[in-house]
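hey can u check if this looks right to u? its 113 residues, i copy pasted from the old doc so theres a chance i mangled smth
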Amino acid sequence: MKYTNFDELTFRNSVEKALRKVKAILGTEKNPRMAEEESDHKWDDKYGLAEFLTNTSVASQLNILEQLGLDEKNLEAVMKWVEEEKQTVTMHFQAEDGCSFLKEQEQEISTTD
């Protein structure tokens, strides 16, 4: 869903729907909710949220790289380049797509006049 013209009600409904899904995934361990201007909160909450979202993002990216074929051995090599050798690592992905002819089929269609 694109938000070209901001509609607060639609946005809040989308967030609430997402929160219900997150609650189902997290179970009773966490209780995520939309921050309200009137609610009390601490700066620690914001830092905890930022840390949680950063960790979630990193885990998602690692999952994607694993699905693309980056195994643990190669990940360790990449981490060594970054941490020990202070190298910048750029990944290049290449994919091929193709199609092949399966069969030719003729079918008679009767018409009624």
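The mean pLDDT is 80.
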